[in-house]
């Protein structure tokens, strides 16, 4: 039959670099993300390295996680970092008021987090406490993290067993200040953030990448207020500016905030609403970018989507404050949609963090006692790895591409993106239609095509997911249905599936 999509990719016209940091992660002191997820403690029966779970680290290492955001989220703005250093048994305790109202023993603190980052081979992204912390705490924390030689905080760090500084670069200035981070108005937050950012110093050769806490969803006026404040810092005396990025957050759900929808038990209509809302991220990135362009036309500042992903009702019977949810093929498709949008906006979008890596919201892995399961979303991150730091390639449709009416709007049912690095091209294709195959014809111009290989993530039902009993129910398989005829690639992408192709070029 007729192709669903015919498109041209000019292999010799590479676009902006897709920062690997668009594949970043997020670990908050929330439910079982840290405690039970990353951290079991040194005395646990679960195999661990210095208290950190080995199975989780091994699984995540295969994703080449570029950065990990910590300690929150909402938790960041009630976290006092000095409570989390020194001998564990002597650390003060606190109540985690946002997440389950449970006691936090502070056993996982700065040293444990940075040890985790070293095991994962990832860059830390530390979020400071602006909501209830002081400028001095922020300043001391950065000194503790990054100062070499002899100084009060460097000495304290050495007393706690670490003489070398860690050299943290990504540094968040609070979190969701419009809500849990202080219920501030943008006009209040902006000067506070300038103050915290000023005293978050660069020590030695280290350069901080300061990220101002941004808007929720389509709150463009928040971004505008921040940009007005930030742009004035981009002067001659301080060419790097006060901030290096502005963030925003966007979550996908099928229902309303009070009843977000079930992770596993959803109707066809709920599926399509989910798809439509996931695709909305593209409009949001473009919208925030447009506001930034007005104040920073040369794109010095990055946009950081430092929380994204699906947010469903918690699994029945679990603590509502722990945000524990299952993860199906639908979640995998949501992730694939986001990455296509990220790749297309790589000129401004420099960092993104899925919420959250283990046991919370759209997780990569779910743990239960000493068992661990990789989710369908995990596999999308793994299959898309070759886009890290590759240059984006535009996919130009010839004529139309397939659409469907959802909630009164026409939305695309096929999502694509492509990139190139070191002579290798990676193409991602997502067929969102659950009933029909998508015939795709790609005309690849500007280079000769060599070996082609493919993998596919699919499921017989879009609600399929992985469990301890069936850990690989949804997992990638070889995909060899690609026909190559000179410069033309033709393939049928099965319903509700995600495909990645690797092409050698010459
Ligand atoms: O990721 C869960 C929560 O969502 C974060 O703590 C907060 O920043 C957001 O509202």
UniProtKB/TrEMBL annotation:
- Name the keywords, alphabetized: Carbohydrate metabolism, Glycosidase, Hydrolase
Q: Which positions fall inside the Alpha-L-arabinofuranosidase C-terminal domain? A: 306-497
Q: Which reaction does it catalyse?
A: Hydrolysis of terminal non-reducing alpha-L-arabinofuranoside residues in alpha-L-arabinosides
Pfam families for the chain? Alpha-L-AF_C, ASD1_dom
SMART domains, per database record: Alpha-L-AF_C (SM00813)
Cite the InterPro entries for this sequence: Alpha-L-AF_C (IPR010720), ASD1_cat (IPR055235), GH (IPR017853), Glyco_hydro_b (IPR013780)
Which named protein is this? non-reducing end alpha-L-arabinofuranosidase
Source organism phylogeny: Bacteria, Bacillati, Actinomycetota, Actinomycetes, Micrococcales
